[in-house]
Amino acid sequence: MNKLALAEARVKEARARLNHSLSEAQARLDPAVIAQEAVESAAGGAAKAISSGVQSVRQRPFLAAAAASAVGLLLARKPIARLFGAGGDKDATTAAKPSLTDKRASRAKKGRQQ
Fold it and tell me: Is pLDDT of 103 > 70?
């Protein structure tokens, strides 16, 4: 085989490798494949987080119950306040404080009466 034929064979082989690499890259960069990998990754992460949470609750059940109770009380604070009558009487009205114009009006009335 001469040098030219050998060089052409190497070029042909390199071109075949490049085409194969490009095909693999296109397959991996397909939006459907990327979306599927993202879903699988998220599902795996969520499963791991849930497993870790369950394990923590099993190790410290009283702490978990206290935290759940605190969150429940925080979410239900308004209904609990209404139940116990806290928060003041919403129907009661407060007496209006006299304004500056009310004071001037009363002085003007006094001035007219004299």
Answer: no
